[in-house]
Amino acid sequence: MPTYVLPEKCKGCMQCVDICPSDIMHIDPAQGRAYNVEPAMCWECFACVKACPEGAIEVRGYADFAPLGHRVVPNRTPERIYWTVRMRDGTVKEFSFPTRRRKWGSTASPATEPPPAAGALAGPLLSFEPDYLAVDELPTLPLTPVS
Amino acid sequence: MDDGLPNAPRIVDCDVLIVGGGFAGCGAAFEARYWGRDLKIVLVEKAAIERSGAVAQGLSAINCYMGMRWGENRPEDFVRYVRNDLMGLSREDLVFDIARHVDSSVHLFEEWGLPIFTDPSGKYIREGRWQVMIHGESYKPIIAEAARAAASQVDEHVIITHLLPSADDPRRIAGAVGFSVRDGSYRVYRARVVIVAAGGASHLFRPRSAGEGWGRTWYPPWSTGSAYALLIRVGAEMTQMENRLVVTRFKDGYGPVGAFFLYLKAVATNAAGENYEVTRRAELRERVGAYADAKPLPTCLRNDLMLREIQEGRGPILIHTERVIDTPEKENAAWGAFLNMTVGQAVTWAAQGIDPKTDPSELILSEPYLLGSHAVCAGAWASGPDDVAPPEYRWGYNRMTTIAGLFGAGDTIGGSAHKFSSGSFTEGRLAAKGAVRFLADHPGPVPVAVEEVERLRTEIFAPLVRFVEDRPKITRGAVSPGLLFPDQGLHRLEKIMDEYGGGVSANYATNDALLERGLRQLLRLREDLRAIGAGDLHQLGRAWELDHRTWTAEAVLRHTRFRTETRWPGYYYRSDHPKVDDAHWRCFVNSVYDPASGEWRLFTKPVRAVL
Ligand SMILES: Cc1cc2nc3c(=O)[nH]c(=O)nc-3n(C[C@H](O)[C@H](O)[C@H](O)COP(=O)(O)OP(=O)(O)OC[C@H]3O[C@@H](n4cnc5c(N)ncnc54)[C@H](O)[C@@H]3O)c2cc1C
Ligand code: SF4
Ligand code: SF4
Known about the structure:
Distance between the termini of chain A: 60 Å
Strand content of chain B: 15-25%
Strand content of chain A: 15-25%
Bound molecules: flavin-adenine dinucleotide, iron/sulfur cluster
Largest sheet of chain B: 7 strands, mixed
Radius of gyration of chain B: 23 Å
Helix content of chain B: 25-40%
Structural class of chain B: alpha/beta
Helix content of chain A: under 10%
Number of strands of chain B: 19
Low-confidence stretches of chain A: none
Mean pLDDT of chain B: 97
Low-confidence stretches of chain B: none
Number of strands of chain A: 7
Strand order of the largest sheet of chain A: 5-6-7
Oligomer: heterodimer
Distance between the termini of chain B: 54 Å
Structural class of chain A: mainly beta
């Protein structure tokens, strides 16, 4: 079905509505809770599952090829994501991976850099180059023979 | 212009308008701000940029990185690789340009906190020659943070439906229009330059999965070909629109194979346990000549070998993960590759009871997609960099299309394959720098035709009106004689493309007569789009996504028909011209749609080597 929502957990906060790239998580006006309005256009991307503060959204694999009895559940924290995978036979596997090595919100606008030199706009270098290329200069053509 | 009607126009004036906040769009926002400190830079996105686009669920590798600082690859090595993989057809100036800049983008990603696998000396760990491994669950939100910091304004949940040419000059861009899927307002962006970064196209062809699994395409269902349709309809020149992508993937869940072939070194066999890439090589040589011995074997030819094996009844094709996953670290890498990038494949393993440590998995070939950033290069014909592009590939500013002031990046730009995430971001940066330079040379506002803006408003919201008018004509339901719903139209499109354009059910084969019929069917569908209905704003979005897909599909059919050879066996076959025909077709196929007359013109452009 792709995603479905557990009624006892959903608070109707709209976070899943906001984040779904397919625009298919909507609030059911009668219940005030979210549901997937178009399961056939769900990518099982888990963006809504990760974003839900209540853990109210789960995924059941596509009915056309996924037998029942499985569960894949993420728990995303600022630095790591934890996954619990339950196989159809009941075996449980756990995995965890880092997500980011810097504080969220710490990336500044490039406008905080000193302004580019006059004339640089006409040249081939991008911002932060050549420094961030970590080589002396930007390669160009024709190639110079490698000595 | 607020006239009290529903869908009141909201006008935004800006210097730089970026359409699409995926990898290329985020790169464009970042770079535009660096060069244009005082510019008003507006990024418009149909979803939320933290999870929009092809990288919504994350990635487990950066597929384009030279490693120049460690002497691993030079840009010219990459040009040779891409030339070979695309069977000779590449805009080598654009490819070279991506390659020489891409490392600086990846180093920025690392600084922004993206966890890249490194050895104790800090050197990136390679998955393959061009790929580095990452813990990329948060790749997209990390990049989005940089774009948000840079842009003046990020308008989300707004679908751009049309570009606006200038009132004075139809070949000069003046902005774009669309609507908010949240409040239904009509959005009018008057911009001095526009950078289109709206991604590739899935669901042009019927997917393998059915029913509820319809959304299980490899490229996401929200890649709707907007980039191509927006450009085509204002008359921008397009290239390589026949160069559709078919990918080898884990069956059903469509998990990518990169980590398994390149890093874990798994081997694929047929049901009898034979490595068909070895056993079929002589037969391939007979069909495609020297290309069969190219190293590495071009992506399309690897598909071709698998396809023949399946057609001859030697499937299932199995990838032997069980022979290579022999440590907990490798098991972790195998699951991580999918949990960080294609969670649906992990769900498939769990559901089908496949433990990759003990069981092989099946491989399959996907339905075709249209992209500019992967092992294919469909998209707009763009001006190349000053110091690298041959004169005929250069008519102004880097990554500007043939429409003045209209730029593109990522999946939007054709002729330059293998950009992937990092290269798309880099191309966004290149396009933005070109765009800021264009602004410096072209001061002053660009006039927009007020009548055109009003006409488009009526057209954009017409499906809502039609739906209301249609309801009294039936008791209830989705079947009405004069109204078509977006999903019904999408099914029709996919069936046409699948059966006539060389999709899965046709074993990727087509010919002139089929293409001619396909085009006729497609044009009837286009006519029927005048009867499309939408019950709400979500459906209205789907209606315009369908419209964009039909324009993209039309270009695919026309280009495929024009190129009377089979250039990329394994992506598609012209059964009436089954050979690679270097004598006539070692060239690009380009097209221009004329918005005034409604006519298409197709022609060839030469391939120029830059090395
Ligand atoms: C499953 C999968 C695995 C991949 N693996 C890798 C990998 O391992 N390494 C790698 O480097 N690359 C990988 N890629 C490729 C990479 O994701 C793409 O090359 C890259 O995202 C292309 O960038 P883009 O900006 O052109 O498109 P996208 O990132 O898709 O961005 C397009 C944006 O435009 C928006 N948009 C579209 N239409 C409109 C409209 N009409 N109005 C407003 N907004 C619109 C979309 O919502 C989206 O945000 C993978 C892709 C997929 C799908
Ligand atoms: S994010 Fe969770 S709690 Fe909030 S509306 Fe969606 S399902 Fe309900
Ligand atoms: S899994 Fe992805 S596509 Fe499906 S509802 Fe959630 S956010 Fe949307």
